[in-house]
Every structure is written in structure tokens, then in C-alpha cells.
Design a protein that fits this description.
By secondary structure, the protein is an alpha+beta fold. The chain has 26 helices and 9 strands. A 4-stranded antiparallel sheet has the order 2-5-1-6. A 3-stranded antiparallel sheet has the order 8-7-9, sandwiched between helices. Strands 3-4 form a two-stranded antiparallel sheet. The radius of gyration is 33 Å and the shape is elongated.
Length: 799
């Protein structure tokens, strides 16, 4: 089959090059339509009960994740000129297209009792900003007495204050959000420049925008860096610009195909799919390394260029196909998850990894057939003395010191297992951001001064229309809110219709803070009568009660305390207290909100990624079973690739690197890539068994000396190719780079040390003539040196 394929590729090389060129133009045309994703990623599937409950909450009360906060803390803010500037900032923000509401200290409104109309009216706290400090101080004192805003907009202890912006969700979920967020920050920068007062930002709209801007910048940076690094390594290996240029052309073609695939599938570029071009660069180059190395070996042996190019396809075509397939499996198993972004990532990466094989197996023989044969200088890498010394040392090690290898491997596995036992799963809503970044510093500002900014909601269903007017219900809710406010430091003061009614009582008693409480039996009649007369247009509580008066929301802001502590807070603190307070009533109370869905989404992601890892393991084991039909060989091939995963897990445990979506993703990807070395080695080992009368020691030695060089080359490329991701500003991308490169480095070592040692120890070399595994169905695996197989010693003599 592969002999015929080699003939077809070389005979029709020009038409095939033209076809690939036309496909690339087609993909490039569609790549022009590619779009960035600005939507908030929904990890939890829509049919999940908690997600459905949250969607119901949003339908009733509106979004909880469309608030942006602007914070300041400076005593000079309360000087007349600075406060006037603060008012001008608030007014400017109100005029911005995409800002639907602005709530800040300069435009605060308060409830005022109108005895003539028997109602409450909303009046501005600052009708205008006075020109004298004494009047301003008096108005500020009045604002400070409004307990409804205390802890929400004003920190009474240190004077920190907020401006809360409600932004249009349609704009935030589109490319126009960059314009809006930049307009907001530009207005704040001008205020900061004039007054010298530092401004801090928080909220999901701001965080999502800044993260996407960095993601776009990093996509270009890593693509360029990965090409530069792999190109440099290729040149150091082969000492030929041709050996650099044409593999990079193949990679350039594949980058266009990746972008075209994303567009054709109507996907958008996310933080994950944006990494695929760089990953394709790193993963695709090893194909070129194996093929060029084989081409040089064969040409050095017999000096026939076309024969050498034909043997690339015939001898390692099937092996390269299988290795690319197992790598693709590491990505395609993500289709088994219920997470859309993971499915998209897996589909695009898996398809294009297989396309990389097709493009490589066509273009490398086809293009090099038009070029001059490699010179003696280009073949010097085949006699790289240091590498030969290294491989000879490994050969001696696996033949003479197998017990030492096995003992060390067992010790490493045991130590790694202890570290793996310490591994914990935790992630943060503002995850992967450097500690010294402005985003992290600003988040700390809001957590220190306002207990956080992450939304959490509690929904109370009274079970009856206008049930929110029942004072018994309100007192129960007030008891619950008091518990949250007094007992938990990292939760802000709750806001609900209860807060509004307490503010109404304070207004009824001429803004005396002592009366900020639920009405009692003596004054409830007066206060409720005033509230009933209030017009709907001025009802500031309407966002906290549904249209029937049956349901109400209690809005909280919490610190970004991490998924583990957040889970404990909700399930071990808040929900038990809900059962305690409301258990004897007819009220139905539950917790929801973006923060809660984040906890569930984090668990869901990790569970799905672990499942995909298990599926990848069994699929690759099945591939090995089909190839060898020998249980012993399956175990021998999998052990060297499981050890690196255990080592990586142990490192994560010992160094406190948590298991989260970005780190859990590493295992299935790294496993799919690392098993490639095992397949290359075992395929060559199978050839050498046939060529050397099934003498295992000779077959192991020859396999190690020939495939060992390519394994080292590709592992170095993969190591440095993934290491570049450590330059990212995102911790998740950094972890992907560090841990994947470490895993692949250990995988190379186990495949050139542990795998040969296992073969020498447990494989007899005997062939069961009644069993014909799939690997024997391809004559290429059984061809011997007589048909053009180049052994290292023969190559060295020719050089």
C-alpha cells in the first residue's frame, strides 16, 4: 500500500502540490471571516438543573454579570474641586453609548418622606455640587448616614467609594465592547490625571475585555515565537536553510488551514482555539524531522535521491500516520465532554493534526524531489558525535543495568504517587492573572474595601402573590441577611427589598440611622401606606422583586476566594443557615448566580477532562492492541508513557500547582504526543526483529541507535516549543507550557531507557505464526536492510 502511495505521490507530485495550494487559498479566503469570541463561556450544559434555575433567575431579575465597578480611595476626593471632577466623571459615564445606568456618590438618590402626598419620593443627595467645603461636608455627612448605601457604595471606615455601571449585555458580547471599555477607562484616566487620585476597575465586563485583549496579543506573539524557535532548532540539527524553510512552509500552510477550519465550522476564536496554530507548529515539525532524517540516512547509504524520497513514504509513512493519529486522539477525545469550547478545541486540533500528516507526507518528498540532493555538509548531523555517544551510553545502560533502571523507575513512581496524593483541585474566577498585574491589584482593592465584587444571588420564593409584603417573611429574610453581613467577612452587605424597606423606615424618621430596620407593629401601617403610594417609575426596589411580588432576590458581592472555599461557603455555611432559618416556613430559598455556576463549571470541566484522559488511554491501548495483538506488548508500550504523567502529577502536588481546567487539559494532550515515541521505537524494533532472526538484544540496539536520534530531536523541539508558553501572562497558559514540556521531556527519557529495558527483560522475540497482528499486514514493517534500510553503521561508513 505505502509502496504504491510513494509511487503516486512522486509521479503526480506537481498536481498534488497545486491541489494543496488551491486548498490553502480556499482556507485562506475563509480565514478572512474568522471572528473572536466575546461571549461569556458557559461551561455548565443548558440542561443542567442549576443552569436552568440561573436562566430563570436572569429572565425574572435580569443579568448579574453586567456590572462594572470603578473604585477610588483618597481623602482629597472630598475636597470641592476633586468632588466636582468626580461629578463630571459620573455625568460623562452616563452619556456613554452602552452604559445603561450609573450609580455613584455624586448622583446618589435618597428616599424623602412627603407628608403632603403620603408617599416617599426619590430626591438627589447632591442637587448640585456646592462651591464651599462646609456645604459639601454637610451633604457628605448626609450621604454617609444613608445605611442603604453603606458597604455598597461607601466604606464608612476609610472613605473608599464606588461608581457602579450597568452595561448593555449586547455590546459586551460583541467586538464593540473594547470601544466601550476603552471609553470608560479613558474618562477615568482623565479624572486621575487632573486630580491625582488613583482609579481601580473590576467587574466581569472589564475582566473579560482585558483578558480577550491579552489573548489576541498572545496569539500573534506565540505563533511568531514558535515558528522562530522551531526554525532555529531545525537549522541547528540539519545545518541547512532548505531543512528549515520547507518544514516552516508546511507549518504556514497548516496555520492557514487551522484558521480556515475554525471559520468553516462557524466557530469563533476562544482562548483555547487561539492556541491551536502555535500547537500545530510545535506538533507538526516532528513529522518533518523524522522524514528529513530518514531521507538523509537513505541518501547517505546509496546516493539515489528518488529512491531515498520513496523510502521516506514506504518506511515511515505508516508509522508517522499512526503517531499523528494517536496525537490527534489526545485532542479528539475532548469530543466526549459536554463542554462546547473543549469540543471545538478538540475537533479543530484533531482534524488539523491529521491534515498536517497528509500535507507533510506529500510536500516533503514532492518538494525535495525538485531540489538538489543533500551535500556532505548537510549529512554531518547523522554522525553527530555527542548524540552518538549519548545513544551508545543508553545502549550500554539498558543492556547491562536493567535492575538499576527498574529500581529507579519504581522509586520515582512511588515518590510521584505521594505527590499526586497531595494534588488539590481549585481555581479562581480571576484565575491565571499575575499577582502584580493591574487587574489583580484592582481586585484586591475591592476585596479589601468592599469585600469583593463577584456576584452571588439568593432567591426567595414566598409561595404567594405579594408575599414579599408579609412582615413575617421580611423579618426572616432580614435575619438571614444579618447573619451574612455579621458572620462572613468576605461577603458585602446584602441588598434586597428588605434593604429598601429598612431605608424607607429611616426616611420616615427623617434619615435617622437608628431607624434603619424592619418596621415594627407600631409604625408598619404608616410606612407601608407610604410605600403603596409610591409610583412604579420611581420604585428602586423593582429590580429585586418579580412582577407578582412572589419572589425576591438578595444580591451579594463576594471576594474571589477560590472554588474550594466558595463551595464550602455555599454548601457548608449558607445553605445550612437557609435550612435553619427558613426550614419551618413555607418560603423556598436557593442560591444561584455567576459565582455559583463558576464553582459547578470548574468541577464539571475537571471531571470531563479526566474522563477524556481515561478515554484517550483506552483508545491508544486499543490501537496498540490492533497493531501488536499481544497483551505483553501493550503493557510494555504504555508503562513508559504513564510514568511521565505520574511524575507531572507528583510535581504539581509537591509544588502546590492546583488541578484546574488549564492543568487537567495537559494530561490527555501530553499522553497522545508522548506515545508517538513508543510507536516509532516499537515499529523499528519490529523491523529489526525480522531483519535479525528475532534476536531481541540486537533488535533493541539497532532500534535505539536509529530511532533514538529522531526521538531526541523531536523531543527537544517539543520541549522548547511548549516552553515558549511560559512567557504568557496567563497562569493557565504558563502551566500548559511548563507541565507539558516537562512531561514530554520525561517521556523521551522513559522511551529511550525504560522501554528498551522492558523489551530486553520481558520480550522473548518469538513470533506466534498463528497470530498475525495488524502491524504485519503492512510489509513496510518487515522490510530488511536489503531493500534499502539504512543502519547507523552503514550510514556512518558512507559519510
Amino acid at each position: 500500500m505505502w509502496k504504491k502511495l510513494a509511487h503516486i505521490i512522486l509521479k503526480f507530485r506537481l498536481p498534488l502540490i497545486i491541489v494543496l495550494g488551491l486548498i490553502t487559498v480556499f482556507m485562506g479566503y475563509h480565514a478572512q471571516d474568522i471572528e473572536m469570541s466575546y461571549d461569556l463561556v458557559n461551561v455548565v450544559p443548558p440542561e443542567d438543573p442549576d443552569m436552568q434555575y440561573f436562566q430563570g433567575f436572569k429572565d425574572t431579575f435580569g443579568e448579574d454579570g453586567n456590572i462594572m465597578a470603578i473604585g477610588v480611595k483618597d481623602s482629597s476626593l472630598y475636597q470641592v474641586k476633586s468632588f466636582q471632577r468626580f461629578r463630571m466623571l459620573t455625568d460623562e459615564l452616563e452619556r456613554l453609548n452602552g452604559v445603561t445606568n450609573v450609580l455613584g456618590l455624586p448622583n446618589l438618590k435618597k428616599l424623602e418622606k412627603s407628608s403632603a402626598k403620603n408617599r416617599f419620593e426619590l430626591t438627589p443627595v447632591f442637587p448640585e455640587i456646592p462651591d464651599d467645603q462646609k456645604t459639601l461636608d454637610s451633604l457628605l455627612g448626609g450621604a454617609a448616614s444613608l445605611k442603604f448605601y453603606s458597604g455598597q457604595l461607601i466604606n464608612a471606615q476609610n472613605g473608599a467609594t464606588l461608581i457602579l455601571l450597568t452595561v448593555d449585555l449586547d455590546i459586551i458580547n460583541s467586538e464593540n465592547r473594547n470601544v466601550l471599555i476603552n471609553d470608560i477607562t479613558r474618562a477615568c484616566d482623565q479624572f486621575q490625571e487632573v486630580t491625582g487620585i488613583d482609579v481601580h476597575y473590576a467587574g466581569l465586563p472589564y475582566l473579560r475585555t482585558r483578558n480577550m485583549e491579552k489573548t489576541k496579543a498572545e496569539l500573534k506573539f506565540f505563533l511568531v515565537l514558535s515558528i522562530a524557535i522551531t526554525g532555529l532548532i531545525l537549522f541547528l540539527f540539519f545545518r541547512s536553510f532548505k531543512a528549515v524553510l520547507f518544514p516552516l512552509i508546511i507549518i504556514g500552510v497548516m496555520v492557514v488551514w487551522v484558521l480556515g477550519t475554525i471559520s468553516l465550522f462557524d466557530y469563533k476564536v476562544t482562548a483555547l482555539t487561539g492556541l491551536i496554530p502555535s500547537i500545530i507548529v510545535v506538533i507538526g515539525i516532528p513529522n518533518s524531522v523524522y522524514m528529513l532524517n530518514k531521507y538523509h540516512q537513505e541518501y547517505a547509504l546509496h546516493g539515489d535521491q528518488m529512491r531515498a524520497l520513496s523510502l521516506i513514504i514506504r518506511k515511515i509513512g505508516i508509522v508517522t500516520f499512526i503517531t499523528n493519529f494517536t496525537t490527534a486522539v489526545g485532542f479528539l477525545v475532548l469530543l466526549a465532554t459536554d463542554v462546547t469550547i473543549l469540543k471545538e478545541f478538540g475537533v479543530v486540533a484533531g482534524i488539523n493534526i491529521m491534515c498536517t500528516f497528509i500535507v507533510s507526507v506529500i510536500l516533503i518528498p514532492a518538494v525535495y524531489s525538485y531540489l538538489a540532493p543533500p551535500s556532505t555538509r548537510h549529512l554531518k548531523h547523522l554522525d553527530f558525535k555527542f548524540l552518538n555517544y549519548f545513544l551508545n551510553a543508553l545502549d550500554i545502560l539498558v543492556h547491562r543495568h536493567r535492575p538499576l533502571i527498574f529500581v529507579n523507575a519504581i522509586v520515582i513512581v512511588i515518590i510521584s504517587a505521594f505527590g499526586l496524593n497531595q494534588l488539590s483541585a481549585v481555581s479562581f474566577m480571576v484565575d491565571d492573572v499575575p499577582e502584580n498585574s493591574s487587574v489583580k491589584v484592582d481586585l484586591q482593592f475591592f476585596e479589601q474595601n468592599f469585600s469583593g465584587i463577584m456576584p452571588l444571588e439568593v432567591v426567595v420564593d414566598t409561595g404567594a402573590k405579594k408575599g414579599v409584603q408579609n412582615l413575617r417573611n421580611l423579618r426572616k429574610i432580614d435575619e438571614f441577611e444579618s447573619f451574612l453581613q455579621d458572620s462572613i467577612d468576605y461577603i458585602s452587605q446584602p441588598v434586597s427589598v428588605v434593604s429598601f424597606i429598612k431605608a424607607a423606615r429611616q426616611a420616615f424618621y427623617n434619615q435617622n440611622p437608628r431607624f434603619y430596620s424592619i418596621p415594627n407593629n407600631r409604625d408598619q401601617g404608616f410606612i407601608l401606606r407610604y410605600l403603596k403610594e409610591e409610583s412604579d417609575s420611581e420604585n428602586i426596589s423593582q429590580n429585586f422583586v418579580d412582577s407578582t411580588g412572589q419572589k425576591l432576590r438578595v444580591s451579594l458581592k463576594v471576594a474571589d476566594i477560590g472554588s474550594t472555599r466558595m463551595d464550602s461557603l455555599v454548601n457548608q455555611v449558607i445553605r445550612p443557615k437557609i435550612d435553619e432559618i427558613f426550614g419551618s416556613t413555607k418560603l423556598d430559598v436557593d442560591v444561584t448566580g455567576t459565582s455559583l455556576l463558576f464553582i459547578k463549571g470548574n468541577k464539571f470541566l475537571i471531571e470531563n477532562l479526566i474522563t477524556s484522559m481515561i478515554i484517550a488511554f483506552f483508545v491508544i491501548a486499543l490501537i496498540m492492541a490492533l497493531l501488536f495483538r499481544n497483551f505483553k506488548m501493550i503493557i510494555i508500550s504504555l508503562i513508559p508513557n504513564m510514568i511521565p504523567l505520574l511524575i507531572t502529577g507528583g510535581i504539581m502536588g509537591y509544588f502546590g500547582i492546583p488541578l484546574k481546567p488549564s492543568t487537567a487539559l495537559i494530561f490527555s494532550i501530553a499522553f497522545g504526543i508522548s506515545v508517538d515515541d513508543s510507536i516509532h521505537f516499537l515499529a523499528k524494533y519490529r523491523q529489526e526483529l525480522f531483519a535479525n532472526n528475532f534476536v531481541v538484544p540486537i533488535a533493541v540496539s539497532k532500534s535505539l541507535r536509529e530511532t533514538g536520534a529522531s526521538m531526541v530531536y523531536t523531543s527537544i523541539i517539543l520541549f522548547f516549543g511548549f516552553v515558549i508558553f511560559t512567557a504568557s501572562e496567563f497562569g493557565g497558559t504558563q502551566a500548559l507550557g511548563k507541565l507539558t514540556s516537562i512531561t514530554l521531556l520525561f517521556a523521551m527519557l522513559t522511551n529511550v531507557i525504560v522501554l528498551p529495558a522492558l523489551l530486553l527483560q520481558f520480550d522473548t522475540g518469538k513470533r506466534n505464526k498463528k497470530v498475525h497482528p495488524l502491524i504485519e499486514q503492512f510489509p513496510e514493517f518487515a522490510e530488511t536492510g536489503e531493500n534499502g534500510e539504512a543502519s547507523p553503521s552503514e550510514v556512518k561508513e558512507k559519510i
